[in-house]
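Side project, low priority. Logging it here so it doesn't get lost.
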Amino acid sequence: MVSKSRRGPGYPALGLDAAISRARAVYDRYGKRAASADEIVNVWGYKGLSGPSSRVLAALRQYGILEGGNDSTRLTADALSVVLESEDSVERLASLRRMASRPAVFQKLSEAFKGEELPSDGAMKNYLIKNTAFSGEAADVVVEAFRRTFDLAKLGSKEV
């Protein structure tokens, strides 16, 4: 009997900072216009939709940076706010916070570790392994992306 391997839970393959960098590249090429997913991943240097490019595309969708199907994908209003507003804009920070809160695994980590400061990477990794179906390797990726996203969106701050 062949056993089916079970996929772990979904998570963004990159932090929000890297995702925003990808959004800027899309804006520079397409502005507010829609493009196919294939055209979008070409902007990032991929030759088409593949495992690696699909993971990046999925991460941007998880953050709420991209919307639409593979035939017509565009930047969201929050993505445009982050790309176009000044660094100190209240609207930009609000958009960053909404994006940072979208991935389900980030919601779980935020709920588990409420407060202004994050615990150690080890504590968050242990939480993910014990309380979700994450492997150790995947938990490392999630913790790194979450910490970078937390810092970028100033989630521990009372600003805004």
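Brief comment: The first strand starts at residue 66 and ends at 67.
Revisit when time allows.
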